[in-house]
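A further point concerns the way the authors explain their paired sequence and structure data. An entry of this sort, consisting of the sequence and the corresponding backbone structure tokens, reads as follows:
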Amino acid sequence: MFGYEGVKPRVQRIDTLTVSHNQQSAARVQAFIDGEWQQQAQPNTALLSIPLGLSKAQITRQLNKILGSYDEQSRILPNPRAKYPLLGTRQRKDTLFRYLAVVWMRSAMPRQALWRVGARAKVSDTYSPELDPKARVVRGEQIYDREVLSILTSRAYNRGIALAENAARGRFPSYAMPEHALQPNIHELWELVGSRRKWKRSQAKKSAE
């Protein structure tokens, strides 16, 4: 649904059928069908038996004969297309989630200064580690780092909102703020983030049981 279009079809060995391992072969064929074949978008696939004692020439001749028995329509590979393909070809996952993390952190700290939000969300590799989000601001203290981090945090927040707004419209990722974009209710957003965390913890607990 969201950008992943599977793996390219390829010729591969599924198993080697021998007298001592014939009971396991059916399971490996089923594993191929449930796994790799699904990921390749279920192309028409010939399951062949190739005795390993045959010469390469014999195998090639017989294989060509078998493949020649299929019509052209059977040889057309599927062309999977995601319903919501990713925009562009160069994606930086860490950057995307850093912007979204700023939005989440802002919803947790709605009344805090932006530099505190940026320090907590680690929006900047340069400035975030230098500032303690809980520190008191002393009058007359050098505030350059805080001002820069505030600017970076504001930019990251706006981009995070644009990412979410565009994703809701089926475009991801895009930093261009769409027309009629809505500013989220930060308090409601934090409630959603909290409920998601509770759900993840419940799923992890079920998996551990």
In short: The mean pLDDT is 87. The radius of gyration is 27 Å.
